[in-house]
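Input/output pair, single chain:
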Amino acid sequence: IGPNYSVYGDHPRFEHRLNIKRSILAAARMRMFGVPAVPSVYVWRMEDVGALARWGNEVGLDALAVNFQTFYNHREWGRVLPLLLALRDALPKGVRWFFPGVSSRERIEVLRELFPGAVFLTLRPYECAAHGRRLRADGKEERMLARPEDLLEENLRVVARWAESERSEGNATDTVPVRV
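Output:
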């Protein structure tokens, strides 16, 4: 995934547009030099969707990352999801989707259903393991006395199940024992 220039809601609109363009240009330049790169963007308004769709159709876009790292709350999630669906429908068929920064079970499952084959990138399994927390299948965390590397392995398995095509049932016992 190419470099990403952040877009924050409380920043001026000019900065939104500038940083979306900078992200696209960075990935395009990487590709020019033979480095495989997926453009990483944000969608903040419908005009962003229109501009990205025009560009994506012009260049025959094959992959796109939409960064979720600055969508912190339910209001922002509710605002961005319709924009994301509009972007999906406006881009060429077969675009491969990447979603950095999505960390909750619920959001991963929603995006998995709407964007089959999507790739999810999250630090949550690592962050939890580093702080002695195990992720459960239901999306909750629990403190556990265990080696961080074992917690990380288990946490990665849990998140991988969230991203699989079958819905997670939220069964907290559906995990592998962790060594202390």
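The beta strands are 40-41, 63-66, 96-100, 119-121, 133-135, 141-143. Residues 167-180 have pLDDT under 50 and may be disordered.
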